[in-house]
Specification:
Number of domains: 2
Structural class: mainly alpha
Radius of gyration: 20 Å
Distance between the termini: 57 Å
Strand content: under 5%
Helix content: 40-55%
């Protein structure tokens, strides 16, 4: 077993009960699964390619959060668009030159991947 996962699964609360057996188990189990997944993925990638490291930031959900932030921006106070509104917003976003997140979003862009064009559109 991966030492970090073993450490997580052996954490106890103040009464000595293993945390993954208590009602607060969600974080421990989720984090342990994420660690195991990244280590398994890294092992597979390192064996099948010549890569020496993995940029785990690219596995982050921040890009998805920025996309949803952009969708919510399109509707002002309406946080729950219907299917037609969502379809229209996605078309508008895909045709825009950039996707940027709101200043009030709960994430930040650490690189410029979110500001690049989604499609390379060239007019003939």
């Amino acid at each position: 077993m991966i030492p970090l996962v073993e450490y997580l699964l052996n954490l106890t609360d103040i009464k000595g009960v293993l945390i993954y057996l208590t009602p607060r188990k969600t974080f421990i189990i989720g984090f342990a699964i994420a660690v195991k997944a990244i280590f398994s993925l890294a092992d597979e990638i390192f064996q099948s390619t010549q890569y020496k490291y993995i940029l785990t930031y690219k596995f982050s959900q921040d890009h998805l959060e920025m996309f949803f932030s952009k969708i919510r921006q399109r509707f002002g106070n309406n946080n729950n668009p219907n299917a037609l509104e969502l379809k229209t917003a996605m078309k508008q976003i895909l045709l825009k030159n950039s996707i940027t997140s709101s200043y009030a979003a709960n994430c930040i862009a650490l690189d410029n991947t979110g500001t690049e064009s989604v499609f390379d559109i060239r007019w003939a």
